[in-house]
Amino acid sequence: MTISESVDFVSGAPVAGDLDVAWIHGSRSAKRNNDPKIQVHACDPHTFILRQSKAVHYEAPFLYLFCGNDRALLLDTGATSDPAAFPLRETVDAVLRDWLAARPRDSYELIVAHTHGHGDHVAADAQFDGRPGTTVVPADREAACSFFGISGWPAEVVTLDLGGRVLEVTGCPGHDDRSIAVYDPWTGFLITGDTVYPGRLYVRDFPAFTASLDRLVDFASARPVTHVLGCHIEMSRSPGRDYPVGATYQPDEAALPMTVNQLTAVRDAARSVAGRRGAHAFGDFTILVLPSTPAVAKQAARALAWKVRNAVPL
């Protein structure tokens, strides 16, 4: 492989990346929403966070693109399959084209993997079908374990070498039995998917969830984690106040990055919940222990009320 410039992803890590960004957060009127379909933010020249527009899908998930010397990793593919509505491949191709223009290689691979397997994180997988030099890892536990080389699920920590940029991957089930966390020593980012983020933490397997949080806290305490980054924002800046499910306008969102102290607070909050079903609100997040018909019904009622207030077609 011809490499015009080999990036040193070890010296000086973790680097001081830029997370001072105003994320697109929707509009009161879908007709007047001028947000891009995908917002791309460069945290540094080799690290990109993408957010899907709320005008395209209310989930507005965050996706992560890490570039190494030999290959890039895209974590998640968003909530919409239609490339006309959500041109993810086109957007990723443009980012990589610019990256490679400054650092030419004879070949460069792309890995598409997932924080977990829910629909709002895998919908655009098919956009990468047939893309040269691309591996799409199916969003199931067996496929993820096989690709990453995890034999001791979920506690084993394994590495993924992107070419000098060596990520660490481990399991963190509880929200979903396929959930993984990814740590990037270059930025210090710990990507936690839907396990930890400023929003509603839906817990489907409580013992697995608390065990995962214990491991994540221990993992983060042993490494220079700069930010804990999930895949959604559902909390406002007012403590304990979240936006309803389906909200397409979130003008006072909480910040996306969380701290290791907040990760520990999620772990401690989960311990205090002790598996009791229902919604348990805390300052920076809400833990919803499922199944809980009353909690789900309350969420549905709030969603309906929001749509009525904002004249959203039902």
Topology:
Blueprint: E1 38-44, E2 47-52, E3 62-67, E4 71-75, H1 88-102, E5 109-113, E6 134-136, H2 141-148, E7 157-161, E8 166-171, E9 180-184, E10 189-193, E11 200-203, H3 206-221, E12 227-230, H4 260-273, E13 278-281, E14 286-289, H5 293-309
Parallel strand pairs: 4-5, 5-6, 10-12, 11-14
Antiparallel strand pairs: 1-2, 2-3, 3-4, 7-8, 8-9, 9-10, 13-14
In short:
The chain is 22% helix and 22% strand.
Could you characterize the architecture of this molecule?
This protein has 314 residues and is α/β, with parallel strands linked by helices. The chain has a single domain, classed as 4-Layer Sandwich (Metallo-beta-lactamase, Chain A). It has helices spanning 88-102, 141-148, 206-221, 260-273, 293-309, and strands at 38-44, 47-52, 62-67, 71-75, 109-113, 134-136, 157-161, 166-171, 180-184, 189-193, 200-203, 227-230, 278-281, 286-289. The strands form three sheets. A six-stranded mixed beta sheet has the order 1-2-3-4-5-6, covered by helices on one side. Strands 7-8-9-10-12 form a five-stranded mixed beta sheet, with helices on one face. A hairpin with a 4-residue loop joins strand 13 and strand 14. The model has no long low-confidence stretch (mean pLDDT 95).
